[in-house]
Amino acid sequence: MPTWRPPRRLLVMRINITSVFVDDQVKALRFYTEVLGFVKKNDVPLGEDRWLTVVSPENPEGTELLLEPSRHPAAKPFTDALVADGIPFTQFAVDDVPAEYERLRGLGVRFTQDPTVMGPVTTAVLDDTCGNLIQIVHMAS
Fold first, then answer.
1. In a domain, 4, yes or no
2. What's the rounded mean pLDDT across residues 55-76?
3. CB atoms inside a 10 Å sphere around CB 126
4. What range does the domain containing 33 cover?
5. Pair type for strands 121-127 and 133-139
6. Count: domains in the chain
7. If you write DSSP's letter for every residue of the chain in order, what string do you get?
8. Residues 86, 92: contact at Cβ < 8 Å?
9. Are 25 and 69 in contact (CB under 8 A)?
10. Nearest 5°: phi and psi at 118?
11. Best label site of 90, 104, 115, 129, fewest CB within 10 Å?
12. According to the model, what pLDDT value does residue 6 have?
């Protein structure tokens, strides 16, 4: 007769850190914290650059966004091509796209796409001043 064994625990993969390439970490930190509202989590000097991450103030232990220096030769052509084609590098969730659009425009943020309703999703696309287009999104409940 086989012996009972507890079920094997499955490991669940989670996103811990994601990144955006930035042309200037100082400028990026200022934009992502003072304008977008993230908070600095890690700031570790690494020679000329830093291991610099920000998080949502609502979830300080959640997914970190690494403000990755765009020094690698492939980074600039990649991000330039995305911007030229109007493709956002990443996406951030907000509670109300039109309200966030107005708040950010009031702070001088340039948008390449005004709030647009696409079925249950509303999006807008902004220029992060550091070489990227960023999409903000809200899904109706």
1. no
2. 96
3. 23
4. 17-139
5. antiparallel
6. 1
7. -PPP-PPPPPPPP---EEEEEES-HHHHHHIIIIIT--EEEEEEEETTEEEEEEE-TT-TTS-EEEEEE--STTHHHHHHHHHHTT--SEEEE-S-HHHHHHHHHHTT--EEEEEEEETTEEEEEEE-SSS-EEEEEEE--
8. no
9. yes
10. -130, 85
11. 90
12. 74
Pull the structure tokens for residue 76. Answer: 């600039």
User: Is 126 part of any domain?
Assistant: yes
Whether 75 maps to a domain, the answer reads yes
- Confidence (pTM): 0.89
Residue 2: pLDDT over 80: no
Q: Rounded to the nearest 10 degrees, how much is the dihedral formed by the CA atoms of 115, 119, 121, 122?
A: 10
Burial status of residue 1 (CB atoms within 10 A of its CB: 0-12, 13-18, 19 or more): exposed
CATH of the domain at 37: 3.10.180.10
Side chain identity at residue 129, one-letter code: T
Contacts of 67 (CB under 8 A, 6+ apart): 19, 20, 22, 25, 28, 29, 32, 52, 53, 54, 130
Write down the residue that tokens 């990144």 correspond to.
Answer: 19
